[in-house]
């Protein structure tokens, strides 16, 4: 199971990224979750994509920011 991730608004998530220097490396990560509903005698499942940016500072500390927006799953 994945560790809990703090939920922030887009502005809250991007504010720390603006302060990152050129020595910080960031990678985009993707997680697909499934939303399932029981219909009649079957389950119907739909994928739901979530995007995270993992930034690694020069001191090797890593921070994950969720960057999923309304267009990610359209």
UniProtKB/TrEMBL annotation:
A Pfam family hit: Mitochondr_Som1
GO CC terms in record: mitochondrial inner membrane peptidase complex
UniProt cross-references to InterPro entries, sorted A to Z: Mitochondr_Som1
Protein name: SOM1-like protein
Organism: Saccharomyces kudriavzevii (strain ATCC MYA-4449 / AS 2.2408 / CBS 8840 / NBRC 1802 / NCYC 2889) (Yeast)
């Amino acid at each position: 199971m994945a560790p809990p991730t703090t939920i922030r608004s887009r502005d809250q998530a991007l504010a720390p990224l603006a302060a990152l220097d050129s020595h910080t490396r960031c990678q985009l990560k993707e997680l697909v979750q499934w939303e399932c509903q029981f219909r009649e005698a079957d389950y119907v499942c739909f994928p739901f994509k979530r995007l995270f940016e993992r930034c690694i500072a020069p001191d090797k500390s890593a921070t994950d920011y969720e960057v999923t927006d309304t267009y990610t799953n359209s």
